[in-house]
Specification:
Elements (H helix, E strand, L loop, with lengths): L8 E6 L5 H14 L4 E5 L5 H11 L8 H25 L3 E5 L2 H11 L4 H12 L6 E6 L2 H9 L12 H17 L4 E5 L4 H16 L2
Parallel strand pairs: 1-3, 1-4, 2-3, 4-5
Helix pairs in contact: 1-8, 2-3, 3-5, 4-7
The structure holds thymidine-5'-phosphate (TMP).
Thymidine-5'-phosphate (TMP) binds next to α4.
């Protein structure tokens, strides 16, 4: 089964504080125990140029950048990441586990910033061609739960400083996308404890690994 399977492109999404980091570690452990060769990467980021763009996007040096600039920088970082890391890995037969991808652009720039979704679609088509994730795990929890968990961490970045209305639009957009693409985007209830979240993640990964 898994040996013959085409290398899978898996992405992990969710609003702030939903537990992406701990779940990423758990997914790695599941892939490790299945003997799958994979790389782990993230967006914005994943190459030296894309990480430099990440610093600009998340840091405080360019706090007042326009929403269009933010959108284009996200896609510039993604173009480099796809060309240098994601496509080459998949072509070599390595699975790719990516912490956020284009669904985050729809959710944050489209939902949060309220940019025109069609513009995002045009950029997506241009930058990705027909490359899309095979599976997206969407960790979902209320904004209050996310805030409480994220609040326990360090200094908030440029996005974390946004208000609840922004994050409610982000969450709604993620859920709407999951509703429109239920085969690819699997919603995981991340409001419970880590064990209950991991149980849901395991069911989904097991189904994929046993295809
Ligand atoms: P994180 O991956 O460490 O959570 O931080 C990345 C931040 O960047 C997060 O607040 C979401 C945001 N982001 C976008 O706004 N658009 C995107 O396309 C991506 C990949 C991330």
């Amino acid at each position: 089964m898994t040996q013959k399977m085409k290398a899978q492109f898996i992405t992990l999404e969710g609003s702030e504080g939903v537990g992406k980091t701990s779940n990423l570690e758990y997914i790695k452990s599941l892939l490790d125990s299945s003997g799958i060769e994979y790389i782990v990467t993230r967006e914005p980021g994943g190459t030296p140029l894309s990480e430099a763009l990440r610093d600009m996007l998340l840091g405080s040096d360019f706090k007042g950048m326009s929403d269009d600039t933010e959108l284009l920088l996200m896609f510039a970082a993604r173009a480099e990441h796809v060309a240098k890391v994601i496509r080459p890995a998949l072509e070599k037969g390595q699975w790719v586990l990516c912490d956020r991808f284009t669904d985050a652009t729809y959710a944050y720039q489209g939902g949060g910033r309220q940019l025109d979704m069609q513009r995002i679609q045009v950029l997506e088509q241009w930058v990705l061609g027909d490359l899309r994730p095979d599976l997206t795990l969407l960790l979902d929890a209320s904004i209050d739960i996310g805030r409480e968990r994220a609040g326990k961490r360090s200094e908030p970045d440029r996005f974390e400083q946004e208000r609840d209305a922004f994050f409610n639009r982000v969450r709604d957009c993620y859920l709407a996308r999951a509703g429109a693409e239920p085969d690819r985007i699997k919603v995981i209830d991340a409001s419970g404890d880590l064990a209950s979240v991991q149980q849901q993640v395991k069911l989904i990964l097991d189904a994929l690994l046993n295809e």
